[in-house]
Amino acid sequence: MKKLLALLLPLAATTTFAQRNGDPKLTELWEPKAPIVTPGKTAADAPSDAMVLFDGRDLQQWESDKGGPAPWTVGDGAMTVKPQSGGIRTRQGFGDCQLHIEWRTPAVVKGEGQMRGNSGIFFMGRYELQVLDSYNNTTYSNGQAASMYKQHIPLANVSRPPGEWQSYDVIFTAPRFYEDGRVKSAARITVFHNGVLVQNNVEIWGQTQFIGVANYEKHADKAPLGLQDHGDPVSFRNIWIRPL
Ligand code: MG
Fold first, then answer.
1. Is residue 49 part of a domain?
2. Residue 32, preceding peptide bond in cis (omega within 30° of 0)
3. Is 19 within a domain?
């Protein structure tokens, strides 16, 4: 054993010597070049390659869940759920993406638990990232703000008081399916709530369900992003997306 070590040690030393004195160019990659993107003034502002879904002025990029014009109200640079008018969705479909969205639950608190400032962001129209007034408002943990509804509890409750603007920054990876409908890879999501990591690349179990277990049903590579009408006048602003 000692003899073997005596033989190997100089060899190991030679390798280190070669690494130190080899050509560093051998490990440099010059192509492809990363595209140039001009960042926004702050991380909340849309970078140059983002698609702006709502800039505070109109609902051009949106339509009703049932088809036709989006029925929500626009004012003061925000769009607000018109309770009982139904959810809205983007006209365009998206798959893998980075999303920035700001939301505000009503300053006047009404109700409790799930009945307080409830809305939601539905990736591909199916996978809900919960929007809720979770400031001093207890509900089931996998249904609070920043939960993947009835699936993943957020790593922290980073909620601001009702009536204050809050943000989500999200990296969403769409699920992949085989031709026959089986899941090739599940959807994944990473979420920052007011800048704090709350979902760390978690695997989504399937389409969000109110009752029972989530499951996947094969769908297109791209599908509209949805916003929920849960009966509360929740507002949204500064929504931009970067398809990945
Ligand atoms: Mg909801």
1. yes
2. yes
3. no
pLDDT in tens, 61-117: 999 999 999 999 999 999 999 999 999 999 999 999 999 999 999 999 999 999 999
Q: Are 193 and 199 in contact (CB under 8 A)?
A: no
Number of structural domains in the chain = 1
Does residue 102 contact residue 112 with C-beta atoms inside 8 Å? Answer: no
Q: How far is ligand 1, taken at its centre, from the CA of residue 92, in Å?
A: 22
Dist. CA 81 → ligand 1 center (Å):
12
Residue 13 Cα, ligand 1 centroid: separation in angstroms? 61
pLDDT tier at 14 (50, 70, 90 boundaries)?
A: low
Please tell me the distance between residue 230's alpha carbon and the centre of ligand 1 in angstroms. 6
Domain membership of residue 235 (yes or no) is: yes
- pLDDT tens profile 15-50: 555 566 799 999 999 999 999 999 999 999 999 999
Range of the domain at 52: 29-243
Residue with tokens 């998206």: 94
Residue 117: closest CA among 88, 150, 160: 160
Span from the CA of 72 to the centroid of ligand 1 (angstroms): 16
CATH number at residue 33: 2.60.120.560
C-alpha closest to that of 218 among 186, 189, 244? 186
pTM: 0.90
**Average pLDDT of span 126-143:** 98
Q: Fill in the DSSP letter of residue 24.
A: G
